[in-house]
Known about the structure:
Layout (H helix, E strand, L loop, with lengths): L1 H32 L1 H4 L3 E4 L2 E5 L38 H17 L23 E2 L1 H15 L3 H10 L1 E2 L10 E3 H13 L3
Helix pairs in contact: 4-5
Amino acid sequence: MVQLKRSLLVFVWLSVLCGLVYPLAVTVIAQSLFPTLSNAGILKKGDTIVGSHLIGQSFTRADYFHGRPSAIDPPYDASNSGGSNLAPSSAKLIGQVQDRAAKVRRENGLDGNAPVPADLILNSASGLDPHITPASALLQARRVADQRRIPEPDIEELIKRNTEQPLLKIWGKERVNVLRLNLALDMMKTGHQ
């Protein structure tokens, strides 16, 4: 009976510690130190939620920058994260890459053999990547400038202002968040930026 009482006491103590105290402490610390990240990185346009800067979105209109392809169906569904798991030698993957490269060239008025940055034609491992490389954004600058009737140098400057640097200038690479870039583009069009 003594062992049962001890076991129940340890069970209750660990349940309170691991099920209540620890999650509450982690939540308070996260909300204090990283409020945007701990609240899903929600971005708003006025009072309307337009998305999260942590999860990619599908932009298909010619007057917006396009992001990485998503391997999941429906695209960018955060409840179904994952890559395609296709091998580099897969005929299906090779066909997808060729089709995507042709589409990027066609949409942006490039020659049939013009190089296309890999992040515009290959899925990310999660299928949710919200970033593209600055080269991918610059490749789309002329199309967006023409569609919006904004001088291309202004679009290039907008890309430069929205390019995120590696963490501590060491880890990662330069990247552009597509949702933030498109929101800045909308602000530029309306004269608020």
